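hiii, so i know i said id send this last week but things got crazy w the move. better late than never?? heres the sequnce for the chain we talked about at the cafe, plus the structure i predicted for it. fair warning i was half asleep when i ran it
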Amino acid sequence: GIDLWFLYQCAKTGRGGWYLPERLMEYRLHSAGMSHSMPALMGLGHLFLYEEALKDPANARLRPALRKRFAETAASRGIHLLQTEKPTEARRALRLSLRAKVTLRALTACALTFLGMHGSSATSTIRQGKSLLRIFHGRRSSVVPPMSSEAADI
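okay and structure toks below
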C-alpha cells in the first residue's frame, strides 16, 4: 500500500517528491501480512494520520475531505471491532465516526453494538452494502422477527 504518513510529511515540509514509473521494490500480500492480520492496528494508524492532518492549520481547505476520510476510517474500524465481537470498543470507534460525519452506515453499526451476537453477525451484511431490511431476512431471531415477503420488498 501507500505510506500516507510519509506522503503527508513530504507535502507538509514542502520538499515534495518525484513520481517514478518503474517499480522499485517487489512485495506480495499474504495472510500473515500486517494489512491482513492486524487491520485494527492499521485503522488506528490511519486515524492518527487524519487527526494530525485535521489539526494542521495549513490544511484548512482540505478539512471537509479529511473529516470525511476520518469518519469512513473510524466506521470501518468500528465495524471490524464489532465483527470480532468487541462491541464496547466498536461503539467508541463508531462514535468518533459519527462526531466527524453522520452516515447511515455508522449509525446502523453503532446501533448493532447494542445487539450482542446478532450485531456482530449482521456487520458482514453492512460491509457488503446490502439492504438493512435484509439483515435478518430468513433467520430466526429473538431480537428481530422474520419479515413478511411484502416488508422485504420495501
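btw The radius of gyration is 19 Å. thought thatd interest u
miss u guys!!
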